[in-house]
tRNA (guanine-N(7)-)-methyltransferase
Amino acid sequence: MRPALLPDPVGLKFVPLEAPPDWDAEFGFTGPLELEIGSGAGGHALEYCRRNPGVRFVAFEWRKKYARDTQMRAEKAGLKNLRVIESDARFVVPRIFAPGSLDVIHLQFPDPWWKRSHAKRAVVQPDFAKLMLGLLKPGGRFDMRTDVQDRAVAMLEILEGAGFHNPLGAGVFHPYDPEEVPSTRERRYLASAEPVYRARLVKAAP
């Protein structure tokens, strides 16, 4: 497996990540630590970080072009609170975040993997859902959005089965909140009034 790549905070050089980073030192400040799995073209990550400068935001994207373009745009915009890691989150996330260290996990429009033979590539699997629950602090939130209804139903069932609490009740999707930061893809759906399935789940306090 190739090593995770962490952008050097002083430039566009990508360096191997050999050990879990000290996020306080990496960002240079303390604050909520949030993770986005599959940041795509970076529309959500960039706008979210612009609106929330006190949040330390780590975005995973396995496609080189998107990952490096997002980091470059963040630097051009002067955003100090975004780091983009070019790698597969399923394999690297367990190595770089301690249990109970994350305040929010974002999952925006994951690949649906239509073919049955490709289903194992989906991010939301029972074991990974349990891992993500363990990485969140008590009261931490898991924010999921997708435009594919059957995938949304399946992911919500897996997440609730792993122990995530749905404040609206099991199997219930959440309404659109105009205060949310939409991704580039979601903006198109909002403009065309096409449905988006949302879930804002929480890790219950012990």
Q: What stands out?
A: The first helix runs from residue 23 to 27.
